[in-house]
Specification:
Keywords: Signal. It is a single chain. The chain has about 650 residues and is mainly beta. It folds into four domains: about 200 residues, no CATH class; about 110 residues, Immunoglobulins (Immunoglobulin-like), CATH 2.60.40; about 270 residues, no CATH class; about 35 residues, no CATH class. About 10% of the residues lie in helices and about 40% in strands. The protein is globular. About 45% of the residues are buried.
């Protein structure tokens, strides 16, 4: 989980190109700002050094700091950030929402402070809040002069905080040539948030709000919240719960969350972990409290005799220095997540890896090299390269690729990026993640991706996916049949609205590609997504029996496509839905609920067939021997009738064409 992954990721140097324009609408607690939101981290960052220390803002006993980090750490002057490519006037800010805001509900923002590496002259603090579908200014203060370090500002009147508050707190500055005045916390604060750092101005795609993602951390902006209860309590705050949504019967439950202290730090505390309201484990001071966020990760056995199906996991602070937390204090919050206890499953046939790339992306060949190394390491990957426009028109971009990019790269770091089985990686905010890795770090990153595949594979496949295909050269018509068997609980575990998706990909396409600043004219593009066989968001599954399904497709291939290089990729899993409302807004299914449960692929004209049945408990039926129609044992798939003996004593007959 995150505790395992982060140390490895800290070694990796990621480079991405981000120019895709996006609109954010009600996703993950974020707001529709009424204006297009763009990603474009066109910044220069100097070498990282140890953070500088300054004195804490003056606070009363009933005040606490609200932010993604609550220490006095600041970058040194040599670590400043600036928009050298785009001098001009800006607002830079941080979006406060979700777990960061919730513990402060019922209080009011009284002060704001922002950190600088160099003075910027006069400025202005603005507090914006989501009201309906727009941002409204709720407070502003002119700042006559600024200093290197923290700049403390008292608001003219308090701003109330509620459970669902969503703020952007920003300050004005003018970017000058060769100046790096802005302070960001990426060098010392591990609790970075994609989309937390915002810029209003023109960074090359017109005036509007831009999000810088989590690459550099958050701008050093904090709010001070006043609440009567703060004066009476020491606070232990738990946040960011991560747990598996499906747990196989007999397997341990992995749980991870963050903890930090606020106000006077408690010397001892306990945290209860409960399942369906019954405490299954109590942690006694798992980490010594700090005002910085710390990670807690544990595994435990679920209670014996639990019924399969839905259950509720909760994490809550139970005592602070021997006393129960105050009912209306910051420590009273409960983290909760639903999970399903499942039994049985099919082995995963393939794992879907979607690569987001562009011929105009100078770092995208690095991402291709990473995925080629991953493919060489394991043979159960179905690669799909999804091309999109960047600073020019990509010849392999289609409406299908546009839709996938819009959904999966919603807040990702830009091109090149990838997703694995459309799962949210533990600790990440999005499906897609950057793969533009410096060559020196590629091998450990491939190990990281291999681990992620295994992590997603811990969820059993609840249905098999078989593909049969044919091609008529006279009419250039492809006929595709996707079928399989599902466990009896498939509709309960994957959902009545589960979808089947079919993609057509082509290898061996030669075209130009920008690579490290120069154009390669004869670059070979593989795994290129040519079209969808199904709807891009998947089709309803055609159930032919209680546990069997079969979907059929027929479509023509373009004249220029080489049939011998075409592959068919089919997936079964949760639906991915996107409804574009206007140029600046759209609705979409939850980003954490579009996962692929199983996948398979075949060359056009070929067929696949399941050779292993569902698992029972921890025992998976696998192929032990294979025979031809004459009863002679063969070493692998052979054209014609194959008779397959399984480890559970069953026999299968498969036609191989």
């Amino acid at each position: 989980m995150k505790k395992i992954l982060l140390p490895l990721l800290a070694l990796l140097l990621t480079v991405t190109n981000v120019t895709a324009q996006k609109a954010l609408v009600g996703i993950k607690g974020k707001i529709d700002r009424g204006v297009a939101v763009k990603e474009n981290p066109v910044m220069n960052i100097w070498q990282k050094k140890a953070p500088a220390k300054t004195s804490r803002i003056a606070m009363e006993a009933d005040e606490r700091i609200m932010g993604y980090y609550t220490t006095d750490d600041l970058p040194s002057a040599a670590e400043g950030v600036g928009f050298l490519n785009n001098p001009g006037a800006y607002q830079v800010g941080v979006e406060f929402y979700g777990d960061v805001v919730a513990p402060y509900a019922g209080g009011s923002i009284t002060k704001v402070r922002f950190g600088l590496c160099r003075p910027i002259g006069k400025s202005k603090i603005t507090v914006l809040m989501a009201v309906g579908n727009t941002l409204q200014e709720v407070a502003s203060v002119d700042v006559p002069s600024t200093v290197a370090g923290w700049n403390d500002v008292t608001l003219p009147s308090p701003v109330p905080v509620t459970d669902d508050s969503d703020f952007i707190i920003a300050f004005d500055f003018t970017q000058q040539a060769g100046v790096f005045p802005l302070a960001m916390d990426g060098g010392f604060n591990s609790n970075t948030v994609d989309g937390g750092s915002m810029v209003y101005g023109d960074l090359g795609q017109g005036k509007g709000w831009y999000t810088l993602g989590g690459t550099y951390g958050n701008f050093c902006i904090q709010a001070v919240v006043k609440k009567d209860i703060f004066a009476k309590s020491k606070d232990v705050i738990v946040s960011d719960l991560i747990a598996r949504r499906f747990i196989a019967n007999g397997k341990e439950c992995d749980v991870e969350f963050n903890v930090k202290g606020s106000g006077p730090l408690a010397s001892a505390y306990t945290i209860d972990i409960a399942v369906d309201g019954n405490v299954v484990k109590t942690l006694d001071t798992p980490v010594a409290l700090s005002s910085k966020v710390q990670d807690v990760s544990i595994s435990f056995e679920l209670p014996a005799g639990m019924a399969k199906g839905s259950h509720k996991l909760t994490v809550q602070v139970s005592t602070i220095e021997g006393e129960a937390p105050l009912a209306d204090g910051m420590s009273a919050g409960v983290l909760a997540q639903e999970f399903k206890l499942v039994e049985g499953g099919y082995p995963h046939t393939k794992h879907l890896v979607e690569q987001f790339t562009s011929t105009y992306c100078t770092y995208c060949p690095l991402g291709t090299t990473i995925l080629n190394k991953l493919s060489a390491k394991r043979d159960d990957i179905a690669l799909v390269a999804v091309h999109g426009n960047m600073n020019g028109t990509d010849i392999y971009r289609t409406e299908t690729t546009d839709s996938l990019i819009m959904f999966e790269m919603f807040n990702a770091g830009g091109y090149p990026s990838a997703s694995i089985n459309r799962y949210q990686i533990p600790g990440e905010k999005d499906i897609a993640f950057g793969i533009g890795i410096n060559e020196a770090y590629m091998d450990p990153f491939v190990e990281y991706l291999d681990y992620i595949i295994e992590w997603t594979a811990s969820l059993p496949a609840f249905a098999s996916v078989d593909i049969s295909s044919s091609f008529d050269p006279e009419t250039r018509t492809a006929n595709i049949n996707v079928s399989g068997e599902a466990l009896p609980d498939f509709k309960n575990w994957v959902g009545e609205d589960a979808r089947l998706t079919v993609f057509v990909v082509e290898d061996g396409l030669v075209a130009r590609q920008l690579n490290n600043g120069r154009w390669i004219t004869n670059y070979t593009h593989n795994n290129v997504l040519r079209r969808g066989g199904s709807s891009v968001y998947g089709d309803a599954i055609n159930w032919t029996g209680d546990n069997k399904y079969e979907n059929s497709y027929s479509f023509k291939l373009d004249e220029g496509w080489k049939v011998e290089n075409i592959r068919i990729v089919a997936t079964i899993g949760r639906p991915m839905m996107l409804n574009i409302l206007s140029q600046t807004s759209y609705e979409m299914s939850p980003i954490d609920d579009a996962w692929v449960n199983n996948c398979n692929e075949v060359k056009l004209g070929g067929n696949t067939a399941s050779v292993s049945g569902p698992a029972v408990g921890d025992k998976v039926a696998v192929e032990t021997a294979r025979y031809n129609i004459n009863g002679q044992r063969i070493s692998g798939a052979q054209e014609g009738l194959n008779i397959i003996k399984m480890s559970d004593g069953t026999t299968k007959k498969v036609i191989v064409r």
